[in-house]
Amino acid sequence: DEDDEFTRNYSYIRHTINKEGNISKISYHDAEGNPAFCEDGYAVKNLEYDDQFRILSESYLGTDGQPGQADGGYSQVKYTYGSDPLDKATVIEYLDRNGNLTLTTKLGYAYIHYDRPDQGRRIIRSYYDASGMLISLSKYGYAIMEQLYDERGFKIQESYYDTKRNPTCRKDYRIAEIHY
């Protein structure tokens, strides 16, 4: 289908590295060196890190250097870290140009909360709308996914729940629980 094809608007990608060795900026340029949009709808992606080199935010700019919008309808992604045993983000938020939570058109939620009890052997992903209410992902039909791992780190079970925390079937699999 011709409508599904993408014409690349940029000729090259420039990566800027900060003094700690992390990529702090990814910019897309045309053959003349001017800013150009990438296939995800922005020209520049800025990344900020904490003192442990974890990404705190990703912000997207247009070709004019002003806040832009990534494909999906958000301008910034914010990562929050807590006392997670695996040292991974506990909350990932999608923000609009004004810094407010926004429901992403591509993902179908405004933020995701990760809970990793039992030393990370259980991971619970909960999806929320911009008002903080659990939201069922339209593509998959669940609001919460719980994954269990054995002592070697292998996934042994995956379960799906609705906004009332009742078991529900994942749309694409047509099952509520998988045992590996």
Walkthrough of the structure:
- The protein is mainly beta and 180 residues long.
- Helices cover 0% and strands 37% of the residues.
- The chain contains no helices and eleven strands.
- Strands 1-2-3-4-5-6-7-8-9-10-11 form an eleven-stranded antiparallel sheet, with no helix packed on it.
- A hairpin with a 6-residue loop joins strand 7 and strand 8.
- The two termini are 37 Å apart.
- The mean pLDDT is 92.
Short description:
This protein is mainly beta. It is built from no helices and eleven strands.
List the helices and strands and how they pair.
Blueprint: E1 12-17, E2 23-29, E3 44-49, E4 55-61, E5 76-81, E6 89-95, E7 111-115, E8 122-128, E9 144-149, E10 155-161, E11 177-179
Antiparallel strand pairs: 1-2, 2-3, 3-4, 4-5, 5-6, 6-7, 7-8, 8-9, 9-10, 10-11
Q: What is the subunit organization of this protein?
A: single chain
Question: What does the radius of gyration come to?
Answer: 19 Å
- State which percent range the strand residues make up: 35-45%
Order of helices and strands: EEEEEEEEEEE
Largest sheet: 11 strands, antiparallel
What would you call the shape? globular
Please tally the helical runs, counting DSSP H or I stretches of 4 or more residues: 0
Mean pLDDT: 92
Helix content: under 10%
The count of β-strands is: 11
Straight-line N-to-C gap:
37 Å
**Strand line-up of the largest beta sheet:** 1-2-3-4-5-6-7-8-9-10-11
Q: Low-confidence runs (pLDDT<50, min 5 residues)?
A: none
Please identify the structural class as seen in this structure. mainly beta
